[in-house]
Amino acid sequence: MTRPLYEILGKRLEELRATDNLRTLPEARFGYGEVTLPSGETMINLSSNDYLAIASDRKLEAEFIASLADYDEPLMSAASSRLLTGESTAYRMLEETLSGLYGGRAAIVFSSGYHLNSGVLPAICDRDTLILSDKLVHASIIDGIRLSEATHKRFRHNDCDHLEKLLAEYAGAFGSVVIVTESVFSMDGDRADLVRLAELRRRYPNVLLYIDEAHGVGVYGHGGLGVVEELGLLGDIDMLVGTMGKAFGSAGAYLICDDTVKQYLVNRARPFIFTTGLPPVTLLWSRFVAERLGGMTDRRERLAAVSARLRDGLAAIGCATPSQSHIVPVMAGSCARSVELAAKLRRSGFYLLPIRPPTVPEGMARIRISLTAAVTESQCDRLLEAIEDNL
Ligand code: PMP
């Protein structure tokens, strides 16, 4: 028997369909760097976040699987939350490795970036806290801010002058101020001015910096620790978020922070406490990758080179992009146009998808090209031709 709620939901789905904004789960098969459609057609995957081509590296995968024979605890499930019996040796090993990489700072692993971002700010912020966030921060951060008791104000995207004005006006009225931004923005591929943010932090003794490096870790820095490492700013960042479902080719997320913050989160971060721990096999894989990140400079260089080639190529054909990284959006404007452009590019052999509101602001639908270290120069050039033909 149909219930009123189902009718309402059905109507809303129809509205989404009518405005080219309906999401459906893909039917494609996602292989090692390639995507195969039910029709048998194969394309290059330019929509994953496997930036260093680690998740699609069969050799590394096989090497890791062979190494598992030495681990003498259940591999496939934590079967409990970390505070009960889910605290595997693998968690300790991974957190120790991460802490070692980040100069001995505390590291705490969450089940995903979403868990982390939606849990940390509500746990540590109280009514005497002001959160100042970039207008374009990720949905998981927005949800964390919504769940916190803090006062919240947004600054215009990457506009440090605006941020500085807000600090001058409000910082004195709160016990603590947390500035929240991303090092590389997930949908625009541009970078925050972390040097300027660190300067602002030095000027205000009650200001803390919370930097989400979801799209920076692995890709930037001598050791692959992110933009913060590249700029030598690790000591200026109070809370650094790394996610492991992207360049790490794994799953989960970590926060690099002060040990007091870590201990507090263990006691108060609800998405940390009230969820089953990650399977040890996933944690061991993350550690396996973390130990090898420093040695992956060649992959970082390949990714940087192909990213610059694509950005320069787009500029040459008059296609403006805000990108300063391996995430390269091609702006389409309307949902309908983004859907059409993505479909055309798929027909040219590139698995690309439309990115539409609410993921991006209204009227700013786009194609998000997500490059990996496995994309070749000739593939990049073919992509540029396809974009030029279909713009
Ligand atoms: N932060 C940013 C900036 C992201 O882009 C994402 C994922 N797209 C997340 C956090 C969430 O990470 P996860 O996928 O591990 O939940």
What does this structure look like?
The chain has 2 domains: 21-54 and 297-390, Aspartate Aminotransferase, domain 1 (Alpha-Beta Complex), CATH 3.90.1150; 63-294, Type I PLP-dependent aspartate aminotransferase-like (Major domain) (Aspartate Aminotransferase, domain 2, 3-Layer(aba) Sandwich), CATH 3.40.640.10. It has 14 helices and 14 strands. The protein has helices at 4-18, 58-67, 89-101, 113-124, 139-147, 160-170, 194-203, 227-230, 259-268, 270-273, 280-293, 297-316, 335-347, 377-390; strands at residues 29-30, 34-36, 42-45, 106-110, 129-134, 151-155, 176-182, 207-212, 239-243, 253-257, 327-333, 350-351, 354-355, 365-370. The strands form 3 sheets. The chain has a 7-stranded mixed sheet. The radius of gyration is 22 Å and the shape is globular. 4'-deoxy-4'-aminopyridoxal-5'-phosphate binds at residues 112-114, 117, 138, 140, 182, 186, 212, 214, 243, 245, 253. 4'-deoxy-4'-aminopyridoxal-5'-phosphate (PMP) binds at residues 112-114, 117, 138, 140, 182, 186, 212, 214, 243, 245, 253.
What attributes does this structure have?
2 domains, globular, Aspartate Aminotransferase, domain 1, binds 4'-deoxy-4'-aminopyridoxal-5'-phosphate, 14 helices, Aspartate Aminotransferase, domain 2, single chain, 391 residues
